[in-house]
Amino acid sequence: MGVYDQGVMFASEMDGVDPLKGIRQEFYLNDEVIYMDGNSLGLFPKAAEASLLRVLEDYKRMGIDCWTKTNPQLFLYQDHLGALMASLVGASPEEVTIMSNTTLNLHSMIATFYKPSAERFKILVDDLTFPTSRYAIESQLRLKGLAPEEALKEVKSLDGRTLDEDRLIEAMTEDVAIAVFPSVLYRSGQLLDVARLTQTAHERGIIIGFDCCHGVGAVPHEFSKWDVDFAVWCTYKYLNGGPGSNAALYLNKRHFGLHPGLAGWQGYVKDKQFDLLNTFEPVRNAGGWQSGTQNIFSMAPLEGSLELFNRVGVENIREKSLKLTDYLMALIDDKLTGYGFSVGNPREPHRRGGHVALEHSDAVRINQALKDNGVMPDFRAPNVIRLAPIALYTSFTEVFRVVETLVRIMDEKLYENYSSMRGTVA
Ligand SMILES: Cc1ncc(COP(=O)(O)O)c(C=O)c1O
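ok -> structure tokens follow
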């Protein structure tokens, strides 16, 4: 008997013994929809709403005094939130700050570290990383007068899904100045061996940074232990900061003495920032890379959300996340392979992140049918339905229901009612 045939009672038993089951009530959920898209835009915690409203109230009452007379002080809010974030990524508080968006934070890092010489001038990437990294890096190369065709080195995936770390390492040649990879791939959910890549890059004199948008909040990261040079990640996916909440930056303390590549007055030594001197004196920590005035309302939800993460613990989140995705994959194996579905993510726990990449040649239409049948998935071209059961708010029963819905969609051919054109925000 397969796990699917054990039925919904089995899922409900798993929910019964789930140590995180109570956390679900701390989120805004829609009872009509099983939300499997938290890897794209996470649901809102009530604590995030509370911190946002508190900051708004402070501003309404105090006007400009809100910068200095609140607790925590808004003038230092990015540092405060960076410190709350640090435990999720294994960093010291002063190595993390919250600012702008992932793309701009990557720009800032490349602008800081990229000092091409005649011998070492290439930036190493792969062809599966979310393309904003590529756009940012290519534009940074152009700013230095270099053509991407000569200075960008790309490792191509052999299967279009995953990256082979041996091949990434093979490409770390003497002409490479910086390597930028994801910690978790956005489409297949593959988790890379960040420690090994970092160690090898350093042995070869290469600076290495990671886009961790699909990792942080689902998978524990250990930036200090792994000794990565820098990392950037967004906060609206697994960290539930709301649409467009500000991104995060990790900068290894070994680099605190560097001059920020995209400097601005918010990075100034704090007690002298308002002296407004023409000579720039950056804070000697990640905060030195802050640029202009903080987007307070785009980061305030993070205060509540990160406090929730710290209370639950990212190790506990990972433990449940792996159980949820294990269960989902077992149900897929049992019930969906006969309809042409397959699992596109690596299976081993140490090689996968927080979502399951469900592949099907008719994925666009099936994805739309799911949406109209009470499940919120997300589609990535050409054939992947990403399903992300979130440890903080998804139940095992919901995972069962998702597969049950897929079985119905296939049995009743409901997907045939849809066009194979994907929507604008897929
Ligand atoms: C892996 C990855 N990196 C970067 C981004 C974009 O980040 P931002 O819009 O914060 O620049 C995304 C967005 O989905 C992503 O999935």
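The two ends are 36 Å apart (CA to CA).
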